[in-house]
Amino acid sequence: DQQVKQNSPSLSVQEGRISILNCDYTNSMFDYFLWYKKYPAEGPTFLISISSIKDKNEDGRFTVFLNKSAKHLSLHIVPSQPGDSAVYFCAGKETSGSRLTFGEGTQLTVNP
Amino acid sequence: NAGVTQTPKFHILKTGQSMTLQCAQDMNHGYLSWYRQDPGMGLRRIHYSVAAGITDKGEVPDGYNVSRSNTEDFPLRLESAAPSQTSVYFCASSSLQGFDEQYFGPGTRLTVT
User: Between B42, B92, B100, which is nearest A34 by CB?
Assistant: First the structure.
């Protein structure tokens, strides 16, 4: 049962444009969501998170939007830079546990 | 601080052989966990620990053992490797208060033939 789905395995955008990465979840008990970024041959690094009591969280060029009714979150990167090219994972978590449930990942390529 | 270190970076095992993947952290974090990453499946937690002497199973624990004798180290043991354990393995650490924001090591790419 894939509780967190990232339906786009890959996304390609031009430098300076907006990148939008999407994530859907099925577990209504998730109340905290995170995005991680992963470069080749490195471990994932934490990027940004959002609590279910919010619908938006912003950190510089990165903004995460949460639509609880649709069980959908998205990561916006504006403007996109070639250094943003990486695999992006979203993850969901229930308050009561320590488990992070990850999506499959989306490979973002930002072309100069 | 080195953060989270893992050794080896790469390894090839034959079916039935055993080996230990090493993980160490120097951030004085209480929470440590092991994940495996497989194509199309994201990261799945194998085992985790909230303190020295305390370990628990994650979502995919079969075929793996862990121990935690101190704060820093969290080795993952494969007693009898199987081809299904071919994967990239990540160790991650966090403080107990902020265990959502985990710090990952660089990974070990393991191939079982």
Answer: B100
In chain B, residues 60-89 whose CB comes closer than 8 Å to chain A: none
Best of A3, A5, A98 to mutate (most B CBs within 10 Å, chain B): A98
pLDDT in tens, B21-50: 999 999 988 899 999 999 888 899 999 999
pLDDT at A57 over 90: yes
Number of domains in chain B: 1
Counting Cβ atoms within 10 Å, is residue B104 exposed (0-12), middle (13-18) or buried (19+)?
A: buried
Residue B47, domain extent: 4-112
Domain positions in chain A: 4-111
Closest CA to B73 of B110, B108, B34: B34
| Residue A1 predicted with pLDDT over 80 | no
Phi, psi of A19 (to 5 degrees): -110, 135
CATH code of the domain made up of A4-111 = 2.60.40.10
Report the SS3 class of residue B4: strand
pLDDT tops 80 at residue A67: yes
For residue B109, pLDDT over 60 is answered with yes
CATH code, domain carrying B100: 2.60.40.10
- Sequence-separated contacts (24+) of A48-55 with Cβ below 8 Å: A48/A75, A49/B100, A49/B101
Rounded to 5°, angle at Cα A78 from A76 and A84: 85
**Percentage above 70 pLDDT, chain A:** 99
